[in-house]
Structure formats: structure tokens, C-alpha cells
Amino acid sequence: MLVDKSTLVTQLAPPLDPQLTEQLVAEFISQEKRFIQRDWEPGQLDGGQFCEALARILYHMDSGNLNRDKDDDKCLKYVENEQNNHLLQPRQTALHVARAQIPQRTGSHPHFAVLSSKPHGLETRS
After folding, report:
1. What is the mean pLDDT of the chain?
2. How far is CA 117 from the centre of its chain?
3. Which of 29, 32, 66, 105 would you call most buried, defined as having the most Cβ atoms within 10 angstroms of its Cβ?
4. For the chain, what are the domain ranges?
């Protein structure tokens, strides 16, 4: 059974930005459908779009700044830079999610992040 898009978006936004969440969930569902159909061809493109949306969500949650057009690599570098003031806690989890996207960023091989129905382990400090 496929994930219901509106239900998942409603569960995630707020606290996540609704537009970025909509993008992320749409890419996730597209990948889910293609996986079920065993259609592997567009996987890299869809995976890249998924990772871009995820990077912007991480940046928004970690910095408190919403920038839907910020370069995804710059978003992830912000999360990885220990000199910045970070809102996402625990840091270990935020760093793991950011670094899991490195193969996608470098183009070395396709790598897809996995999104559960709720973001477990990531909490934002007030």
C-alpha cells in the first residue's frame, strides 16, 4: 500500500515547512511507485530531487532560516559546520542524515535517503 500524501504532509508540516515537505513527500511517493513497478531508470534524478528537498528541510530545522532556493550543498555544509549555531539535536543524528547524502552530492553513486512517517531522533531546540 502506498503512503497517503496528504496524511503524511499533515503529520510533518508543521513543524516542517509545508512547501518543502510537499516536495519531499512527492519525491518519496514517486520513488515508492517506481520501486513497486521495478522501474529503475529515473531513480537517480528522483533521488537527487528528494535529497535537495531533504537538505533544505535540514537547513531550515537546523538554522531556523527558511530558504527554499538555497543550494542543497550549501545547506548540508551549514549542518556539518561545527562553527554554526545549531538547533537540531542530537547533533550526531543531524550529522548522520547530512552525511548520508554525500554520495548523491558527489555523484559517485545513487544513494537514497529514507524518510519514515515521522522524523524520529531529530528535535529542535527552542
Report:
1. 77
2. 12
3. 105
4. 14-109
Residue 22 has pLDDT above 60, yes or no: yes
**CA-to-CA distance for 4 and 43, rounded, in angstroms?**
20
Q: How far is CA 114 from CA 24, 65, 67, 119, in A?
A: 11, 24, 22, 10
What confidence score (pLDDT) does residue 115 get? 38
H or E, element range at 77: helix 72-80
Query: Residue 89 forms beta bridges with which residues?
Result: 123
Query: Euclidean distance between the first and final Cα of the chain, in Å?
Result: 37
Taking only the tens place, the pLDDT of each residue in 37-91 is: 887 766 666 677 888 888 999 999 999 999 888 988 899 999 999 999 999 888 8
Give strand ranges (E) for the chain.
88-89, 123-124
CA distance 124 to 126: 6
